Amino acid sequence: MTLPSLLGAHVSSAGGTPQAPPRAHAIAATALQLFTKQANRWAERDCADDECGAFGTALSATDVRTTVSHDSYLINLASPDPTLRARSIESFAAELRRCGSLGIDLLVSHPGNYMDEREAGLARNADAIAEALEMVPCRTILCLETTAGAGTVLGASFEELAAIIDRLPAHLQPRVGVCLDTCHVYSAGYDLANDYDGVWARFEDTLGMDRLKVLHLNDSKTPFGSRKDRHELIAEGSIGEGAFRRLMTDARLAHVPKILETPKGDDATVTDSRMIALLRSYEAAG
């Protein structure tokens, strides 16, 4: 029997991380993404043994086969401000420790904002990642997320992600991959709607498909090349249905976990279930 592909959504961990797997089960997910702490607060925490055990038990009662965490939105590993950068490294390392304790497979992280000079920011970002990975040895794979490219944010080009990874010590590079967000790359100038094959050829040439560890599936509220990060429901935005049909039937991506971060509407379970069913229909028709 062929197992269903890895497909899910970012689900709430309100009430504690053990509450996330049942929410993933409710939407028929085979992969899930969660926050292990409040994403908009600096306050850190450790995961106690009872929490880790409860999370594992809850997960075993679902069909989820891949788990993903997303780190705090406050972290800026590329900051030229030494206080903010030090605090960001501390928070990032704490996230890695929680992922290790919970047995999370993948950790998605946005490259930082360089604020002063792009090349300097790339170097600071890479050096901070290396420092945190050395501090926290664990099996969790860090996934640098593609960005839409607004302002001084890093990571809007495949070349910038490659530059960060290439700067890491060789022994740390196997612990780092890429999360490609469909809305972000489209907004950054990679036309998945009209040049699907070309986008993936550029990814292969610059990063290599083996670096792709997770996909964020989001349509875009804004036009191609807008440099804006505005997610839309699948097939209801400017990317459109065609690209998502190809993503769900592309043999190269069959093993890659696919996570929805689309708007939740009034009822997250209902909306996410509808989106997953739609994507599954593309897969079945492929």
TrEMBL record:
Record EC number: 3.1.21.2
Cofactor binding notes: Binds 3 Zn(2+) ions.
Span of domain Xylose isomerase-like TIM barrel: 24-275
Domain of life the protein comes from: Bacteria
PROSITE patterns registered for this protein in UniProt: AP_NUCLEASE_F2_1 (PS00729), AP_NUCLEASE_F2_2 (PS00730), AP_NUCLEASE_F2_3 (PS00731), AP_NUCLEASE_F2_4 (PS51432)
SUPFAM superfamilies on file: Xylose isomerase-like (SSF51658)
Binding site for Zn(2+) 1: H70, H110, E145
Catalysed reaction, written as an equation: Endonucleolytic cleavage to 5'-phosphooligonucleotide end-products
GO molecular function: deoxyribonuclease IV (phage-T4-induced) activity; DNA binding; DNA-(apurinic or apyrimidinic site) endonuclease activity; phosphoric diester hydrolase activity; zinc ion binding
InterPro entries, sorted: AP_endonuc_2, AP_endonuc_F2_Zn_BS, Xyl_isomerase-like_sf, Xyl_isomerase-like_TIM-brl
Sequence positions that bind Zn(2+) 2: E145, D181, H216, E261
One Pfam family from the record: AP_endonuc_2
UniProt entry keywords in alphabetical sequence: DNA damage, DNA repair, Endonuclease, Hydrolase, Metal-binding, Nuclease, Zinc
GO BP term (any one): base-excision repair
Class of the enzyme per the UniProt entry, highest EC level: hydrolase
Cofactor(s) the protein needs: Zn(2+)
Annotated positions binding Zn(2+) 3: H184, D229, H231
Family of this protein: Belongs to the AP endonuclease 2 family.
Purpose of the protein: Endonuclease IV plays a role in DNA repair. It cleaves phosphodiester bonds at apurinic or apyrimidinic (AP) sites, generating a 3'-hydroxyl group and a 5'-terminal sugar phosphate.
HAMAP family for the chain: Nfo
Protein name (record): Probable endonuclease 4
Protein encoded by which gene: nfo_2
